[in-house]
What does this fold into?
Amino acid sequence: MPQVKIIAKNFMDMVASLPALKLDKLYDNTFICEAVLRSLPALAKKYVLQLLFIDVTVTGKSLEEWLLQDGFSKHRVAVDRLVQLRVFLESVDRKKDSSYRLNPKFQINLQKYLVHGGVLPREPMPSSITVRLPTLEELDAYALEQWECFLLQLISSSQAERPTSFSSSMMKIFQRGLLSQREKEAPRLTVNGFQFLLLDTNAQLWYIIREYISNSEDRGVDPADLISFLLELSFHVTGEAYNVNTLTDIQRSTIKDLADLGLVKLQQGRKESWFIPTKLVTNLSVSLSDSSSRKQGFVVVETNFRTYAYSTSKLHCEILRLFSRVEYQLPNLIVGAITKENLYTAFENGITSEQIISFLQQNAHPRVAEKTPSVPENVTDQIRLWEADLNRVEITPSHFYDEFPSRDVFESSCDYARDNGGLLWEDSKKMLLVVKAEIHMQMREYLRSQK
Amino acid sequence: MQSTSIEMNNMGNSFKAFRVYIMVNATKGLVISSDIPMVQFIINYNSSLPASQRFILHVLDNTHLFVLPNVGEMIRSAISEFRDQNSYEKPA
It folds into this structure.
């Protein structure tokens, strides 16, 4: 079953794949340097900080001196990543030894950031102009509502209450990996679609943004500009209003799309209009460094396999319907039961038991989240057993050999099959042999060459 | 049952009539590997079919069977039918 890792690392891979000139231009922006630093593996971060104030090139050998014996593979991974992102500039001398120094622009900007702190290109607007500023809770609720509406429309356009302003071609692009469109049928979620739904919000966000940026070239927007704008946005302060006229034209058209996703909230005053970043966008930079902020869970799973989800969201109801039987929907509660039949349907759709269990564990209600285990063991064990039940029988195409003329031929064929990794079964007494279908041709050649 | 014989006639020099035949019988099929109860179920299913449709060629041991090719799907659907008989769906 295909395993799709939809995480922020893919976003950084996209950044790394930009041409060298564009990448260097990106490093003009202090915030991008900081964001890239956060996304690096731990050893790479250490190297960057250690070389931050060193202006000369450092040989690869002296870098390796900092390592313990078993750190060599991590060292290679870190150095490769740094060279890929053009944070390290590599020079190879005549003896084929490489030496590194930090990209000068990156270095200067990061030094400035350390010393002065990040200075945003725009100031929050004075509160005399920004009346009706939403509180942080209202902002969170708005962001969540927008994001859920978008997700609902993504998976089934009939379910969303109001359509977003994304053009239908944009929605098609987002849906491309997640839904399969067959003629005369309603679009069905693919394996990747199911896994996408069960992911953390931040991972989902990164996936959508990555798709958005990959398609920006078709719409005539430079991806590097988009990336720098988004990363810059992630360093703004949640809840503060920023004037829209500080944005360039491209950024202005992007901000409308971002408002639909729930990343910012647009508001209009008498003369001016402003945007307010929500927690979703400021979390973008946090989630780069692999430490995710836990949002409040809402699911209680009992030992009798019943689930109680304290949520009003349609999206949560749909997700629960993927693998459990939803029995009642009350104004603040969704009651359901995890049944074998629903799980079988889920397994047929490509969801694994590990995904379901980690979804339940990560979204456990605060009341049960403190207990260990947060999901009862009999439930998790039973889910895994049911999954194993579907895979009881293994079928291998193969060939059966009998009527060997002599024991020697039999023994040597057995050894030949065993050496080639194709021996499935043998019976020495009756001189019978079963080998995998893949090596049947080789066995024929071998037997033919026997005298 | 389909069987293909490999007949090899190895003629060394043309005068010395020293021929060695190697005739090993090779049969194409599928190996079914499972736990013991499931193997018993498949054997029972096999016996319940009319003689023209039986598919087990050899019982290798109590966890492995050698069957005709192309019956993989038939076996899998028989197993899921058996599995579904154990399920009870509450009427909606």
About this structure: Confidence is low (pLDDT under 50) at residues 1-6 of chain A. The interface with chain B takes residues 340-341, 389, 392-405, 409, 413, 424-425, 427, 432, 434, 437, 440, 443-444, 447-448, 450-451 of chain A (CB under 8 Å). The longest strand of chain A covers residues 394-402. Residues 136-155 of chain A form the longest helix (20 residues).
